Amino acid sequence: MSTTSRYPAGLGSLFFAEMWERFSYYGMRAILVLFLVDQVTHGGMGLEKGEAAAIYGLYTAGVYILALPGGWVADRFWGAKKSIIVGGAIIMLGHILLAVSSDVRSIFFFGLFCIAVGTGLLKPNISSIVGSLYDKNDIGGRDAGFSLFYMGINLGAILGGFVVGYLGESINWHLGFGTAAVAMFLGLVNFIYANNRSLAGKGEKPTRNPTAALLAQPPTNKGLTVAITLTFAGLVGVLAATKQIDLFSAVGLAKAMGVLIVGVAIAFFLNIFLAGGLTADEKKRMVVLAVLFFGAALFWSGFEQAGSSLSIFASDMTQRQFGDAVIPASWFQNLNPFFILVLTPFVAKFWITLQNKGVNISVFTKFGIALIMLGLGYLILVPAAKIGLTGVKVSVLFLTATFFIHTIAELLLSPVGLSTFSRLAPERFTSQLMGFWFVAASLGNLMAGLLAAGMDTESPTGLPDAFTQMCMTSVAFGVALLLLAKPITKWALNGKEMLEESSTSH
To answer: What do the Gene Ontology cellular component annotations say (predicted)?
Structure first.
């Protein structure tokens, strides 16, 4: 297999477009809460920490949820390419509004809304174009390409966090927001430049002329779609009327978002599965995607504990004093994107090498190993946390090893999941199902909160038990996926990862 087929020409353009978009997103996100809670006299908004955290949670959850309508707009009306361009322009507008909002809160919050809407349009559709660069059965090349694309995401995240974070905290909040707008402008220019060159013919508007393949497919059931939508809306209304969720405050909306995420995910899946006019083979592949969605949500529920338990471990139990210098506890969070940048080329080459040797590892096996490695990463910290409770600071090598193992696990699951969703999704629903994949991360964050609520992760004394429980949970589900790999692959994919030619025609 040639390098060109591994990394098609358009992949580089998509890499940099996504890198600059992630620069703007993670850069702005790094200073958002800090700006919201900072005193008005210092240029901030002066909000209470609880309200600021609720706004942050609503914003990040909204970005993931809006990936679903963003994919729907592309699949039904604009196509992926136009959706990306419009989304990028809306993101840039949002950052500009944040930069010029000064003390006008309505402008600031409208800017946040614009960024969420724009990201919902851009993120699932740029991933679907990456998938369109590869043949359906080029599993190794596709996984390698998404691994490289994933590296762009993390490179943008690191650069954005450092640059926007520094400018916002040290000079002026609004300068930081403005820099994020410039980054998005660069990403948009890069994508538009590639539009008629390396990406020509990719992500165009959906055709209005039905092909023979489309005519052969069962018709969609619009009545069932309406019924599912009304049922979901009715459930939300009942929950609001019985005061199970509060839709009229930032904190209440943040708590309600968890219920809404689960409901939207279930309603969305059932709508496509039952009312989307799928063939029998497509329905089987949808079941595969549902299992992977659940596996990804479980993975992120453990992975996202890094923001609480691992931060406490770094702050209270890790030896961070080196001579006269002290390593900030927050810097350990950069180990994950750093390891992604270092390891991605090796992981990408690994997938290509396996395929060249005729070996294709089941996606369920990859997910299962990822969950097991997630658990092993926490297992390393169990004895270290017990030592830390004695008052002895442990070596930075413990936390470094955990982040290293978790990063390998992430590279086994996240880019592979993107690759598989783009490959197995029915073509007329590709962008929508890419949006569905991103909802798994949102649901994972919700599950992380539920797990944390049942464990003492807010103080050092509870960390050994918390790490043990997260290890056991992750390993158990990982082993379950390994055991299910062969029977599910046999049932849904005829015992092999390759798709039949009739399923891959464009």
So the answer is: plasma membrane
